[in-house]
Known about the structure:
It is built from 11 helices and 12 strands. The chain is of the alpha/beta class. A hairpin with a 2-residue loop joins strand 1 and strand 2. The longest helix is centred in the N-terminal third of the chain and has 18 residues, at about 90-110. It is globular and about 60 Å long. Magnesium ion binds near residues 186 and 210.
Amino acid sequence: MNVHIDFLWARLRAPFFSGWGSIRDRPLLLVRVEDSDGQVGLGEAAPLPDYHGVGVDDVLEALNACREMLAAASPGPATAQALAEWRRMAVLPAVAAIDTAFWDLESRQTGQPVWRRLGARVPDPLEVNHTIAASDRAGAAAEAGVARAAGFGCVKVKVGIGDDAGRLAAVRAVLGPDVAIRLDANGAWSVDEAVAALRSLAPVGIELCEEPVRGLEQTRQVAAAVPEVALALDETASAAGALEERVCRAICLKIAGFGGISGLLDAARRARRTGYEVYLASTLDGPLGIAAALHAAAAVRPDRPCGLATLGLFAERDDPLPARAGRIEIPTGAGLGDGLTEWYRGNLM
Ligand SMILES: [Mg+2]
């Protein structure tokens, strides 16, 4: 088995602001596995250093270790065991890329879409939220207008980045009462700040607030103090023990943060057992990462709209998985689906 790695910077239309900072260019690693018959599977590693705690160099190092192991190995139990060991030790965005590439490869070998191999029924289009990237009132209001016109039923607004109340009021004024507003603080608040902010923002009408604070105990405290606002773990979903005890209403799971499709499905099973509502999101992934999440979602059947309509945030590229009326079609072609690689062309380094 050969593993080939390409690196690209994908430019966003505008700086993307959140509680962990802002970015304009997104580093992505495109991973290609090829078996001895020349069959190919593709995956993507999408590390965000401020978010996952690992950068491109860490992921490249892990992928190179995997590449050398797979190139030297022959198919059999010893290789499978070495790969399993690597999955346990390696950084999660690297594991996600290899896991996704193997799902793509094995599904293409049998001519099926990944969702069918995951045991999903013919999937309905997946409900997704629109994410507002602007940090100012006028920009946020304009984006809300676009989301409303496009038929989204849920819009996500970043908070903890200044003028939250003003932006949120401007967004609600544009959306009217029927479109849900989801907040995401990316852990920017302390417990006291989160309690005060959520109590003051709640009258605007909030579907839920993602990651108001970092940490399980901190989230539990905010949930107890502000029961009128549903909370979701996001960054904290990766904390030790997060899937074993329910500290709030919902949990957001991601391909890059849970080691690909396999890791995400396992996490979703454990989270549901604990009583969480589950939904999926991307970390500004490219089309392969988004497609992997769509296939996983077909099996998971999320309880809330998913944060997977993020390809429109990129500049100079057509979105191969666009949302229509707030929903994205699950790809029906073999593997992860057709038409996903054009997005990466001409920008590989
Ligand atoms: Mg989030």
